[in-house]
Amino acid sequence: MLEAFPNRQSLTALGCFGALALAVLAVMFGRELSWLAQVPASFSLPVSNWTNAAIATFSTEFRSLFRFVGDALNWQLKTLQSVLLDIPWSVMIVVLTLGALRIAGPGLAALTATTCLYIVFAGYWKESIATLTLVSLGLPLACIFGAALGILAHSNRYVAAAVDAVLDVMQTVPAFAYLTPLIVLFGFGPVAGLVASVLFALPPMTRNVKVGLDQTPRETIEAAEIAGCSRLQMFALVRLGAATRQILMGLNQTIMATLSMVIFAAVIGGFEDIGWEVLRAARRAEFGNGIIAGLVVTLLAILLDRVSEAAFVRERQPQNKLSAPSFWGLAVLAGGVVWVVIAPLLPSPAQLSMRPYLAPVLNDSLMSVSVYLSTVTATLKSVITTYFLLPLRIGLVRSLTPAIWGFEMSPALMAIYVTVFCGSALVLAFRQQVGAALGVLFAGLLLYTGFSGMPWLPLIAGLTLVGWWLGGIRLAAITAGGLMAIAVSGFWPSTMFSAYLMAASIITAIVLGGLLGVLAAEYEPVSRTMRPVNDFLQTIPPFVILIPLIMFFQVGDFSSYLAIVAYAIVPMARYTEQGLRHVPATQSDAGHLAGCTSLQLLFLVKFPAARSDIILGLNQTIMAALAMLAVAALVGSRGLGQDVYIALSKADSGMGLLAGLSIAMIAMISDRFMRRMAVR
Amino acid sequence: MKLFATWKAALSATIPVAGEPMFALAEGSAGVDSSRGRSTDVKAAQSSVPAPQENRPAKAEPILSCRDLWKVYGGDARRVRAILAEGSSRDEKIARLIAEGANPSVAGVSLDVRNGEILMVMGLSGSGKSTMVRCLSRLIEPEAGEVRFEGLDLLQAKPADLTEIRRRKIGMVFQNFGLMGHLTAINNVAFPLRVQGMALADRLAKARGMLELVGLAGREDCLPHQLSGGQQQRVGIARSLITDPDLWFLDEPFSALDPLIRKQMQDEFLRLQAKLHKTIIFVTHDFLEAARLGDRIAIMKDGKIVQIGSVLDFLLNPADDYVRSFVADVPALRVVKAGQIAVPAKEPFSSQGDPVVNADESIESTLKCFLGGAQRVVVRKADGTIAGVIDHNLIKSFLGRTNSGHA
């Protein structure tokens, strides 16, 4: 694009430089320019009170409706639970294992049997049944509503745009945030959690149904038109058929989302499911119980994922010898026989539980391990906190004290600091790398003030300018509007705290994940070992990661940081590996022939070629980190996640929703930024 | 020399000389059918004299015709319609549409398709050929113009009527097959019947027969992705024929296939057509395919038909440089068939002693006879009657007029 001299790029650079200068002024004259440095108290509006009032009015208006729906769901929950509990565990194991054998083959049948037996001996049979009850009630609801929404979105362009926007928000607002208003509407108890699960699990269904219906090949549609299809025939015979695979893929995702949210929703309590057991164990620091229950959750998640994947996503295997009806008939018969003949002879799951013996032993041994490792873990924790987390949070200006780093930020040091950053920025600027120069200056300022001391107005101005440069006036408006809205609702300090935690985790995830991705792309064994670990980390509900973290690193920022890293590292590693592997062979051949060393090949040929893949990975990493923010708050970091969590315990829906929306806002803005960057 | 003069007359002028033998030379949409052996009015006894014949069938009512057909993408819909409704010339309209930011994909096409002929629509990608064909079946709604199918105005037809016409009278084959991925081969073929509400057993029986016809017996229960490209297109062909349509559209049916498979499928197509005698509109970007399969060829450029006529017309009389570039590398000796240039003999003759070639053999094989020392070659149609003769002078002038001399 050829533009006149003051083009968008140079205007942005100038503007950003101005914003930086303003920020420096604000830092230097913090007292006089406090409105520039911190959000003034007069600036915030009681938005959360308004939200609360609105929700209160809404819930009284429709009280009878919500009560009716709530009662109906509650009755169904209780009924289904008691029916499932009435089936003896031995019968359940036989039927489930036979089912898995039919659907997914002998390997997964063995896993099914093992999982069931483990649950029995772990003493969590009743709790697991409660979880399965929630899943099997939430899943069909999510499917029906999700599919209906997807069909609507498919049939109308405007509905599609609206649904897309709503789903974007729903998928980025942490689920905790809408738990609170649901509690107001449905009252405390499992129903609010169930509804939250349905809401949480519905987007993948909607998205996949819509994509599947939309993506029917044009020629297939035309062929059907030439055959003289009516509109209904076109939908039922052609589009729906063509979308089947995609919809089944959505079903697999919906199942996993339902399970994961059912586990989450346990924080409400009241249904004694397995998620509740994990949470309770974690709260009481009963690591033995926590690990045992966490393993149940993990096994359930892996099992559901693999079996549903085998059933819906994988290519159909050639059919077995038995026809479907006769097989299922036989399975039911086998279940009946076991029920009548074997089940009465077996003790109840409660009697079989080994947990009373196992948990204390496990607990003690884990404790001794953690004590044994405590010098290592404590050192790790203090080093990373002191030299990485603290400077990011409160900046060198406050962390560089004798008490923390052992020496002070003397004027001489300060002069060196300023010279180093300004000097390198100047050098870069002379090399025409204005963007990099600005980045260096910003990094210098950020490191000095930390996220908490970052002047808010210049930051918003700078981000808005970058948004303008990347995505035009629209993105600039979204950025400015979104960030201002956060500031107005009084969540700016929390947001900056979250930003610090996110930045720390994302930097770590990029470095470690990128490194792992490079290694995996270069060395096949690394890739082979990494794949199941990644699968595992992506399948298990994020909740479970917290238990070992608390065990070794106690409650606090550091554990939150590690939890986020563990979750966010996966997409980075995956996309980096994928991007590097997909570099066209001709390009790396050309690099080889040009005489690149392997490092040169990596940095000069492969990274640039894999750039857009890696940026997409980065985007996924940020999204994963944001999603984990609210979960990580359970182990005690401050910030938006903690706000959401506190709102939940105080049943303050306004605060919860707004804090959640702030997270969604950040997610949306950074997503837009990243996408623009990927195509640039 | 006399013959050469006739040649010249026939080639340079488009006015038929009465009583003189001539090459069928089509002009515009009212072209002359020069198809192989389609005229049945002459039934000469073998080795006796054929009566002087016009290689032209009785002028039949076109099964499908369109007049001043326009499909315009982009631009403001109302402005576009206003421009099209004006009385200005086609080129003026095109210029004004482009100035409006609209893109005329089909620009004022008029065309007649006669019963039983194979019309090849050719052009580079983006020339509007697929769009034009889709407008003819109203898969795409044209902005202006008229399409008459068996006397009915298709663009004014009510949805129910249109559906009925599509169900009974039109079949279409697509470049990328357009099969339903979730249906087995036999269910794909039976799909149009299912839409019509035919009972399961009946439609499966018919579909099975159709699959047999296209050589796919035994693959009934395969899903499309389990079949090769050529097999998938056979399914597509079977599906398009199962309702026994009067009008058969083929939109680049063999372009997605490997060259060898393409050749096989072309043979298969000719075999089917010999049995079924459909009226066919066949889109292709391959001139050799057009020459091999078609009776007439229409070349499109920028949404307009630049030239329409027989292969010979294109070789001997290209309308402009664009068409010339299209046929520049076409091996005329292989593309043109003996039956297309043979002329009736001047006087009664006996074919004894003269070599005989079939009408659908290429000029190349005729040439071999001349190299073998023959003075003239007798051309025989598929039904055994004599199509005419080719002599030295004729072949010479042919070689002179086409690029075959340098090929």
Features:
heterodimer; A: 680 residues; mainly alpha; MetI-like fold; B: 407 residues; alpha/beta; Rossmann fold; 6-stranded mixed β-sheet; 4-stranded antiparallel β-sheet; 16 helices; disordered N terminus; transmembrane helix (chain A)
Topology of helices and strands:
The complex is a heterodimer of chains A (680) and B (407).
Chain A: H1 8-28, H2 34-37, H3 47-61, H4 63-86, H5 89-104, H6 106-122, H7 125-155, H8 157-172, H9 175-186, H10 190-214, H11 218-226, H12 231-264, H13 274-283, H14 287-313, H15 324-342, H16 349-352, H17 355-372, H18 374-399, H19 411-430, H20 434-449, H21 456-488, H22 492-522, H23 524-539, H24 543-553, H25 557-581, H26 585-593, H27 598-609, H28 611-632, H29 640-650, H30 653-679
Helix pairs in contact in A: 1-20, 1-21, 3-30, 4-7, 5-6, 5-15, 6-14, 7-8, 7-10, 7-12, 8-10, 8-30, 9-10, 9-29, 9-30, 10-12, 12-14, 13-14, 13-24, 14-17, 14-24, 18-20, 18-22, 19-20, 21-30, 22-23, 22-25, 22-28, 23-25, 24-25, 25-28, 26-27, 28-29, 28-30, 29-30
Chain B: H1 2-12, E1 62-73, H2 77-85, H3 90-99, E2 103-114, E3 118-122, H4 129-136, E4 144-149, E5 152-153, H5 159-169, E6 170-173, H6 185-196, H7 200-213, H8 229-241, E7 247-251, H9 259-276, E8 279-284, H10 287-293, E9 296-301, E10 304-309, H11 311-316, H12 321-327, H13 332-335, H14 338-341, E11 356-358, H15 363-371, E12 376-380, E13 386-391, H16 392-401
Parallel strand pairs in B: 3-8, 3-9, 6-7, 7-8, 11-12
Antiparallel strand pairs in B: 1-2, 1-4, 4-5, 9-10, 12-13
